[in-house]
């Protein structure tokens, strides 16, 4: 099965009106050839050239605009033959891939890694409980330090009106 935007939209409708959980979207990617673990949430359509080369394990969140790059053609420019580089992408358990992050072919992420929004992950990370970000992505912190710094700023969507009005001190300022 090819992973089309229409197929994704049908899965999204099933999620919203029938099952009320993430499984229809995960099933859409599974049927397309990707390995998607249980309780993994994929927030938006992700076109994947070779879904068989993508594995996202259990309890992950894949934000909108994430790209899984499973191959590239750059070797064509330096050789006389039409060829590609291919690599499997493996995302460990309980990871978060921030909005518009890009994961390159051959990358493997250990369990419990947060990938910052807009990051370009060009190499594997074998350490758990870390935060990576940047272009190229590098380790910028640990879960413990992140929790200590921001735990009191975490809010529910139901609190958004109070945050906007300044009734609570949960607005993030950089």
Automatic annotation (TrEMBL):
SUPFAM superfamilies: Trimeric LpxA-like enzymes (SSF51161). One of its GO terms (molecular function) is transferase activity. InterPro entries: Hexapep, Hexapeptide_acetyltransf, Trimer_LpxA-like_sf. Keywords: Transferase. CDD domains: LbH_MAT_like (cd04647). This is Acetyltransferase (Isoleucine patch superfamily). It comes from Fibrobacter succinogenes (Bacteroides succinogenes).
